[in-house]
Amino acid sequence: MEGVERNSSIFSPRPFQEWSLAFWTLCSVMVPVLITLWCSFRRSRRQELMQDILRKSKHNWQDTDLFSQPTYCCICSLHILQGAFCNCCGLCVDEECLKKADRRFLCKEIIMRGESGFRTSMVHQWIRGNVPLCSYCVVCKQQCGTQPKLCDYRCVWCQQTVHDECMQSALKNGTCELGEFRNLIIPPYYLFNVSQMRKDKRVDYGKLAASCGKNWTPLIILANTRSGNNMGETLLGQFKMLLNPIQIFELTKTTPAKALQLCTWLPCNSARVLVCGGDGTVGWVLDAIDDMKIKGQERYIPQVAILPLGTGNDLSNTLGWGAGYAGEIPVEQILRNVMDADGIKLDRWKVQVTNKGYYNLRKLKVFTMNNYFSTGPDALMALNFHTHREKSPSLFSNRIINKAVYFFYGTKDCLVQECKDLNKKIELELDGERIDLPSLEGIIVLNIAYWGGGCRLWEGMGDELYPPARHDDGLLEVVGVNGSFHCAQIQVKLANPIRLGQAHTVRLILKNSKMPMQVDGEPWAQGPCTVTITHKTHALMLYHSGEQTDDDDVSSVSEQELAKDQTDEDT
Question: In the prediction, which pLDDT does 103 show?
Fold first, then answer.
């Protein structure tokens, strides 16, 4: 009996059960891991294939899915779960249909194809499906895109929409008039004609403008995608949908000097430029325009409008384009505002900083000023902000966060007062006449009405008589402040600045100390020096009368009307 019990223990199912448990435990751990690795491999492989397709494609594809932009594939007509859309022509396709879409559909042609001869018109370029909401058929005037499927057509140039059943052969091959923004679009046939003229070494493009209409003012858009709220990427795609993609430039990839050479392909004094960025970006573009004058291209100089994407946007505010853009109005309205804007002049100033010391071999610092120059607490805030943004640029990509950081440094300066007794450290001369300075902590030299993100500094509380401030009269306004707290009081109209005077030439002499300085938001720490500000040139700008920071700000509007009248007299 003992032998039988011993043999039965050898063939007991317990070891088998233990091995079975271990095996299934291992499977339960390894199978998810293997599935995850396989999915990662497939995903990376799919991304490589997608990148290869996107790199070779003539379309400007952007990723889309069911949640970000519900659309239908223009090839298979199915709902897109994972795919791409072209932000130039609006074509939407599923991932599996990308190659077919590249072969079957052309994107917007920036220049018309052909061998010889001159063209004066073009036909519609229709894309089926995914028409904009609230669009209406050009034939029957009924709403388009109401059915939950791929239906109806849209012209990528004039943006007209038409029902499937209303599409006729005459309309399908009809002449495209380029729609509402035809006065801003550079037509592909115009660029074709220019290329033909250049082959014959002719540059009189005025004759070609007749085919584009008598009110044709072609628009070039320069966008800085790193400004403010980083909205530049979205705006680029929206503008490419409405205009010729050749008119749109991203300044992180193409410099303003290179982009503005497109103006030389256009009739003299016809081009307009929309700068999407902060005041620093506007200054960068205006410097490139000044270089055009040096190159002898003065007859091609454009007028400049602003879409404010920066933090302060004081120049934009002065010219009526608002204190900041956050997507509150559609890009179509922005283009309408540019078409309706009036031309005015803006003074630009040369700021020369000469370091003291006979043996100082460093070169002079020379800046161009559009907005203001300052030394004191506001320059110190700008310097602290700039230093920390250089260390961690990704943390300063939001306009509200940027202003909060400025507020923090302003509060700190109220307690520390690093710039006190400035009147003992600096001498001020206005048009060669020395000014006796009262006790103050900062000096601000103004060219425009707004300062500090929307404050009309020269006006203050508006309860005192003072000479009017304009940005085209060749005069600078010079004021003093008693610290960061005084600046805050002026911004909320609880105090007036210390008005030191107006002048054509301003000279500041920093004696023996080191002080923060800034020109148009570009700060630095400066030792003993002489700062001389003189008039440099005028810039041709566009003024929009439809938006102001203060609703009751009648004086600003009257100033702009005076500026416009003065411009008309000069011309």
Answer: 86
Q: How many alpha carbons lie under 13 Å from residue 298 in its C-beta half-sphere? A: 6
Residue 519 to residue 536: CA distance in whole angstroms: 15
495: left (phi over 0), alpha (psi -120 to 50) or beta: beta
| Among the listed residues 69, 127, 62, 75, the one whose alpha carbon sits nearest the alpha carbon of residue 101 | 75
Q: Which two tokens stand for residue 518?
A: 């800034």
Give yes or no for residue 531 having a pLDDT over 50.
yes
CB 420 within 8 A of CB 486: no
For residue 27, give the H/E element and its range. Answer: helix 14-56
Look at 388 and 156; give whichever has higher pLDDT: 156
CB 458 within 8 A of CB 479: yes
Query: DSSP letters along 74-122, please?
Result: TTT-PBPSEEEEETTT--EEEGGGHHHHHHH-----SS---SSS-----
Q: Which of 21-25, 100-104, 300-304, 506-510 has the lowest mean pLDDT?
A: 21-25
Task: Give the E-state strand segments of 178-285 in sequence order.
Answer: 219-223, 248-250, 272-277
pTM: 0.83
d(CA 219, CA 236): 14
Give the number of other Cβ atoms within 10 Å of residue 450's Cβ: 25
So what's the pLDDT on residue 543? Answer: 96
Amino acid identity of residue 303, one-letter, is Q
Question: Which string of b and e fits 249-260 if b means at least 16 CB within 10 Å?
Answer: bbbeeeebeebb
Number of Cβ within a 10 Å radius of residue 453: 19
Q: How high is the pLDDT of residue 561?
A: 44
7: pLDDT strictly greater than 60 = no
Structure-block tokens of residue 153? 């057509």
Burial of 130 (0-12, 13-18, 19+ CB in 10 A): buried
Is the distance from CB of 449 to CB of 456 less than 8 angstroms?
yes
Return left, alpha or beta for 296; rule: phi > 0 is left, psi -120 to 50 is alpha, else beta. left
Q: Tell me the CATH class for 348-537.
A: mainly beta
DSSP 429: E
- Outline where DSSP puts E strands in 511-571: 515-519, 522-526, 529-543
CATH of 15-104, one of 3.10.50.40, 3.30.60.20, 3.40.190.10, 1.20.140.10: 3.30.60.20
Domain layout of the chain by residue ranges:
15-104, 348-537
